[in-house]
Design a protein that fits this description.
This protein is of the alpha/beta class. The chain has a domain at 6-162 and 194-219 and 258-275: NAD(P)-binding Rossmann-like Domain (Rossmann fold, 3-Layer(aba) Sandwich). Helices cover 39% and strands 16% of the residues. The protein has helices spanning 16-27, 47-58, 72-75, 79-98, 132-146, 168-178, 195-208, 224-234, 264-270, 277-288, and strands at residues 6-10, 31-35, 62-65, 103-109, 152-157, 160-161, 181-185, 189-190, 193-194, 212-215, 222-223, 240-244. Strands 2-1-3-4-5-10 form a six-stranded parallel beta sheet, with helices on both faces. α5 (132-146) links the parallel β4 and β5. α8 (224-234) packs across α10. The structure holds NADP nicotinamide-adenine-dinucleotide phosphate. Residues 11, 14-18, 36-37, 41-43, 66-68, 70, 85, 107, 109-110, 137, 157-160, 165 line the site of NADP nicotinamide-adenine-dinucleotide phosphate.
Length: 299
């Protein structure tokens, strides 16, 4: 019997992407080590050394980084913390991967763009982040690119929902159950993406053995309001989703008004057209949230 291929997934124990990716890799026969805060707090001084020792003891063929400082508004007041997780951690991982025979997968974000376009952003478009979160995520990408790793995938994704952790859909459905109306922003447009799909597409990229920056999201685009409206409708909740403008809905961090991502590079390489987000949303609600529906069975 051949030994299983080993993967190390940072954030695999509790992160939205990390959990889905770990599950997809395990289903594909990989032996996955899920590394989380309980083993190493990546903001601590000793974290780099401990991470390197962990990698040396495991000798993984694949390292995937799904750890990040993802609180977009809080990052404005905690730029140092955001920098440690979004820039310094990938830089450390890059340095570790540079001298070892492994593939490094790192996730980034649509928030590296300024949102002035009106057609989906391709991997050729220049980033220009508006927020601390976006700036630190871009700095993480740049740190990796500057190392010129042979086998590094930087996957920009967006607007995630999926099982295993709180996310926009759960927040909206919770508010919709408790209120007659929920206010949701209509003038920010992006690419809603289901984490099990992102995880499956990530594995396809790893198998394709091409490296560099890829955009990977479900197809179609939506405003937060469209996304909330569809989730409330599918969940059969009596609640009005009221469109409000970004100006009316005060948030600390600036967000791109338009940040849909173009997955052409991913499609050309893998031949896969990501499925439309409404299909993925239906799957999420019927598969993972059915017990919360009025009928209790998702039917
Ligand atoms: N969520 C989105 O909508 C979105 C959109 C675009 C791009 N992305 C990118 O996708 C990737 C994955 O995001 P996600 O939504 O899956 O993130 P997430 O659900 O917020 O998970 C983040 C992970 O990082 C871990 N973590 C945070 N601080 C840590 C620390 N100091 N030490 C150790 N672990 C720590 C968390 O552990 P705890 O559970 O212990 O906190 C968790 O496992 C990130 O690169 C993110 O920038 C996300």
């Amino acid at each position: 019997m051949t030994a299983k291929r080993k993967a190390l997934v940072l954030g695999g124990d509790s992160g939205l992407v990390g959990q889905s990716l770990s599950g997809v890799l395990e289903d594909a026969g990989w032996e996955v080590s899920r590394l989380g805060r309980r083993q190493i707090d990546f903001t601590q001084r000793e974290a780099s050394r401990r991470l390197e020792a962990f990698v040396d003891s495991l000798e993984p063929e694949l390292i995937a980084n799904a750890v990040a400082y993802t609180k977009v508004d809080a990052a404005e007041q905690n730029p140092d913390l955001a920098g440690l997780l979004n820039r310094a951690l990938p830089a450390t991982l890059g340095r570790i991967a540079k001298t070892r025979p492994c593939v490094l997968v790192h996730y980034s974000t649509d928030f590296v763009f300024n949102g002035r376009k009106r057609v989906p952003y391709s991997t050729e478009d220049s980033p220009d982040p508006l927020s601390v979160y976006g700036k630190t995520k871009l700095a993480g990408e740049e740190a990796l690119l500057s190392l010129e790793l042979e086998k590094c995938l930087i996957i920009r994704t967006a607007w995630l929902f999926g099982p295993g952790r709180g996310n926009f859909i759960l927040t909206i459905l919770d508010r919709a159950r408790k209120n007659k109306t929920v206010n949701v922003v209509y003038d920010q447009i992006g690419s809603p993406t289901y984490t099990p799909d992102l995880a499956a597409y990530t594995l396809k990229l790893v198998e394709a053995e091409e490296y560099g920056i890829f955009h990977v999201v479900n197809s179609g685009q939506a405003s937060w309001c469209d996304l909330a409206d569809e989730a409330v409708r599918l969940s059969q909740i009596e609640c009005r989703v009221k469109p409000v403008s970004t100006a009316e809905y005060s948030q600390r961090a600036r967000r791109p008004p338009y940040s849909a991502l173009d997955c052409t590079r991913f499609y050309r390489l893998t031949g896969i057209k990501p499925r439309p987000w409404p299909q993925a949303l239906r799957d999420y609600i019927y598969t993972h949230l059915a017990s919360l529906m009025p009928s209790g069975n998702g039917g």
